[in-house]
Amino acid sequence: METQTDILTAIAPAGGETRTILDPATGEAVGQAPVHTVADLDRAVAAAAAAQPAWAALGHEARSAALLKAADAVERHAEELARLLSREQGKPLNGPNARFEVGACAAWLRATAATALEAETVVDDGETHAQIHYRPIGVVGAIGPWNWPMMITVWQIAPALRMGNTVVVKPSEYTPLSVLALARVINAELPTDVLHVISGGRDVGARLAEHPAVGKVMFTGSTATGKAIIRSSADTIKRLTLELGGNDAGIVLPDADPKAIAEDLFWGAFINTGQTCAALKRLYVHTDIYDDLCQALTDVAAAMPMGVGLDEANVLGPLQNKAQFDIVSALVQAAKDSGARVLLGGNPDPDQPGYFYPTTLVADIDNDNPLVAQEQFGPALPIIRYDTIDDAVSMANALDVGLGASVWSADLDAAREVAARIQSGTVWINKHGAVDPRIPFGGAKQSGYGLEFGVEGLKALGVPQVING
Ligand code: NAD
């Protein structure tokens, strides 16, 4: 079994420019990442294009078998992958964090291997016989963010590989080591050149999005970058799946029991220290239970330890980078300046090393406050009071993003009625952010388009071809 040092040595660049990656909790060096260039990307795309026909010719059974072996390999290396992820991304080993993320990588590889996409017969009436088949696209580009770097890479590459495509991955410049290490483990189970990782900056991402030999881009990241990718991809009419930013609302109905739901609400909002696309980022609570809910949530939040990820006691970590720390600080400051009431946190310690922002709950805040209206992507949750369901629904729908949302109630029918009125790709009931490899996931409005996971996710990595006759 490889150790942490072995895995870092194995992915260390053999030459060329490098960059030192720093631990966001301590400022210590984690390792050296290669700084690949656009020329490196072009070489990787050419190699992936050359390898694609043979990979496609292997057929579904052999590709699924390779994904299952990759899942086994991830499990064999789970602990060293989790430790590297914790050091580079900042997330603790425990809680729904680093070990959980590596476990999800194996789970998604297995689920993708097990999902079958059959040809669909659309007409068979004796005269006409028409079927839809899904053919490989060719080379797929995968561009990812820094919050769940390993898991999101698997979400992108597993269905792409399963469908007979080869893949070139461009990880976030903040978390390249995690993706390089994961790809090294998976690549041991794949033929040469089927999966490449190019660890460059935004110029490399932009080239991947416009590259004439790339047939599809799977992108997960901010809405602003998603718009840039749509523009870059226009000349080649590239297929796109865009999983973009969110600002998920949760609506708590008056019949909910504050104490019973407080811990699930907490993790819905604070999973990965709030740095999660489909985390609960705005909480709307009926006035009848507002004070009790604020108290119950404060009690839960105050008891959750935050600190360096490798310390087994912690379940919350630092922000991943200084830019994100500054965004969260500025949004909470704006809320304070507006007269909103800070229930917990809001006071980062200037002497503490690392980008730690304390768990923060803000009450008595208006819906147009920047902490509500903008994606904070960190450990700061605004709690907004409402009087009528119509008000809550209209506040929840007021933004131009719509990734996830949730409704909390003891009455499932009432909750489903409210859910149907919310403009988002998913509405969870009495939970928030639960993703499942069998259930399609994607955004409404400016949170993106296209679906990931399950049969719908496989369809998105194929070109539909109708055989009529
Ligand atoms: P980001 O958009 O800054 O960067 C994402 C990736 O895009 C990086 O690899 C970056 O190098 C690359 N990139 C930057 N400019 C590019 C360009 N012009 N062309 C091509 N690639 C380019 O996002 P981030 O800050 O890393 O991630 C946080 C954001 O991602 C949040 O808004 C979050 O909500 C969103 N997110 C969404 C989902 C989802 O499933 N919808 C999941 C995770 C994160």
Your description of this structure?
This protein is α/β, with parallel strands linked by helices and 469 residues long. 40% of the residues lie in helices and 21% in strands. The protein contains 16 helices and 20 strands. The strands form five sheets. It has a seven-stranded mixed β-sheet with strand order 12-13-14-11-10-16-17, sandwiched between helices. A six-stranded mixed β-sheet has the order 7-6-5-8-9-19, sandwiched between helices. Strand 13 (360-363), helix 13 and strand 14 (380-386) form a beta-alpha-beta unit. The structure holds nicotinamide-adenine-dinucleotide. Nicotinamide-adenine-dinucleotide is lined by residues 143-147, 152, 170, 172-173, 202, 205-206, 209, 220-222, 225, 228-229, 232, 243-246, 277, 375, 377, 403, 443, 447-448.
